């Protein structure tokens, strides 16, 4: 029974001391989760409230059915980016149809992960080289930053499919920069980075949100042309069956598979690292079931695709989380935010959310990883660099597929042409 319902193992030795540790970790993660989830929703092309939806009920489901007690599930930058790029061909970001497709994508991603978990197909992740994901992640981080520049400058730019097109649009609209918006954005970045350097335990993003929301309210930032988040519906969404667009279903399935695979690899990588530190057993298939159920159930509560977060899982682990109860506490904090604080977020300036995104994803750009790969394994280096380069000139899902194909081809080449060293007698 414990194998299928992992949360039952929490209560075997659960006591007041463990609960206090989970409570502390849960609240620590929550103050990071609230601003991050709203910011990451913007990456996905969705209104900020959908990030909060994805950080509520789905987080509870993932905690109950996943095998890693410390894995913090919710909105993440890379999956948000893949969701955005997968849907821009079929609808305009922010519009009702785009939102419906994002919710449908969560359902499809969840069903794929659930299918893989139930049929013990977790081994498939071994066929996707780490070098491919690393190359894509570095490229995605750079692209994500460019998508946030318009909001940081206060200019309106129609998002294009390729980074070079976006940079051109930004360049020709630079004269329209709103200096007040830019000042708020740069000040937010300075606060977030500055507080991190002073003390990493300070929820710097939340501090920036609170400061500029208060300033926006008292000084009427909107009158200076600074965009604010606006109305956020109060409370949890009523559960409903996701709208299924039969005309697009076949085209979305392939993209959903890529998101399911990349999203799970991100979740499993951090869960595996934490398990190596805690000596806990990690079941790859059960983790797939947990992530799959979180996405499926989440789609009934207006969530878009989610995954395990590197940064929040690390915070959860370092804060002393012992069981998945810490994640449930984080989700309850988000639900409380939706129930009681949502109206106050009306005045939150958009450039603050862009600053949160930029400061969060800049850490994903790690050029030294390419150098390390090239020195240790030339074939992995080729796969990483190729995937990285392709991500700038074509849609990310195609870049990943080509990267995986190249990685497998190079692996087969090495297997068929082993290096033989002849030793003399």
Beta fraction of the residues?
under 5%
Helix content: 55-70%
Number of helices: 17
The chain-level structural class is: mainly alpha
Q: How many strands? A: 2
Compute the number of structural domains: 1
Mean residue pLDDT: 93
Main beta-sheet strand count, sense and barrel state: 2 strands, antiparallel
Alpha carbon gap, first and last residue: 60 Å
Low-confidence stretches: none
Strand order of the largest sheet: 1-2
Give the radius of gyration: 22 Å
- Run of helices and strands: HHHEHHHHHHHHEHHHHHH
The shape, in one word, is globular
Describe what this molecule looks like in 3D.
Helix content is 66%, strand content 1%. It is mainly alpha-helical and 425 residues long. It has one domain (6-416). A two-stranded antiparallel sheet has the order 1-2. Helix 1 crosses helix 9. The longest helix is centred in the middle third of the chain and has 30 residues, at 249-278. The mean pLDDT is 93.
Brief descriptors of the model:
mainly alpha, single chain, 425 residues, two-stranded antiparallel sheet
Question: Which helices and strands appear, and what pairs or packs with what?
Answer:
Elements: H1 16-43, H2 49-54, H3 57-65, E1 73-74, H4 77-87, H5 96-118, H6 130-153, H7 163-173, H8 179-198, H9 204-219, H10 249-278, H11 284-299, E2 307-308, H12 310-318, H13 325-341, H14 350-361, H15 367-376, H16 378-393, H17 396-416
Antiparallel strand pairs: 1-2
In short:
The protein contains 17 helices and two strands. It is mainly alpha-helical and 425 residues long. It has one domain.
């Amino acid at each position: 029974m414990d194998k299928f319902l992992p949360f039952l193992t929490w209560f075997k030795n659960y006591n007041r001391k463990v609960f206090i540790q989970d409570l502390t970790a849960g609240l620590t993660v929550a103050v990071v989760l609230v601003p991050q989830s709203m910011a990451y929703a913007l990456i996905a092309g969705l209104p900020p409230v959908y990030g909060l939806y994805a950080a509520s009920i789905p987080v509870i489901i993932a905690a109950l059915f996943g095998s890693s007690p410390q894995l913090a599930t919710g909105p993440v930058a890379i999956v948000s980016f893949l969701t955005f790029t997968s849907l821009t061909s079929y609808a305009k970001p922010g519009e009702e149809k785009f939102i419906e497709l994002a919710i449908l994508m969560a359902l499809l991603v969840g069903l794929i992960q659930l299918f893989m978990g139930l049929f013990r197909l977790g081994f498939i992740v071994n066929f996707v080289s780490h070098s491919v994901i690393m190359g894509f992640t570095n490229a995605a981080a750079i692209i994500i930053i460019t998508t946030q520049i318009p909001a940081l400058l206060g200019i309106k730019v129609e998002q294009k499919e390729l980074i070079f097109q976006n940079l051109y649009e930004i360049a020709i609209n630079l004269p329209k920069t709103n200096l007040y918006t830019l000042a708020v954005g740069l000040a937010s970045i300075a606060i977030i980075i500055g507080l991190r350097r002073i003390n990493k335990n300070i929820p710097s993003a939340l501090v920036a949100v609170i400061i500029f929301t208060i300033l926006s309210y008292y000084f009427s930032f909107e009158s200076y042309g600074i965009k604010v988040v606006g109305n956020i519906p109060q409370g949890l969404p009523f559960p409903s069956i996701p709208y299924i667009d039969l005309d697009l279903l076949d085209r979305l399935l392939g993209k959903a598979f890529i998101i399911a695979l990349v999203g799970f690899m991100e979740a499993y990588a951090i869960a595996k690292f934490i398990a190596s530190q805690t000596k806990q057993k990690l079941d790859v298939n059960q983790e797939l079931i947990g992530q799959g159920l979180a996405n499926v159930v989440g789609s009934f509560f207006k969530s878009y695709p989610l995954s395990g977060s590197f940064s929040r899982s690390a915070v959860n682990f370092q804060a002393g989380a012992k069981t998945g109860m810490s994640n449930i506490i984080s989700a309850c904090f988000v639900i409380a935010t939706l129930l009681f604080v949502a109206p106050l977020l009306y005045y939150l300036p958009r450039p603050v959310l862009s600053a949160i995104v930029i400061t969060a994803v800049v850490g994903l750009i790690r050029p030294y990883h390419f150098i390390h790969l090239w020195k240790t394994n030339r074939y992995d280096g080729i796969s990483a660099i190729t995937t990285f380069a392709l991500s700038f000139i074509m849609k990310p899902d195609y870049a990943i597929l080509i990267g995986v194909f190249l990685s497998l081809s190079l692996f087969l080449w090495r297997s068929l042409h082993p290096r033989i060293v002849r030793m003399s007698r």
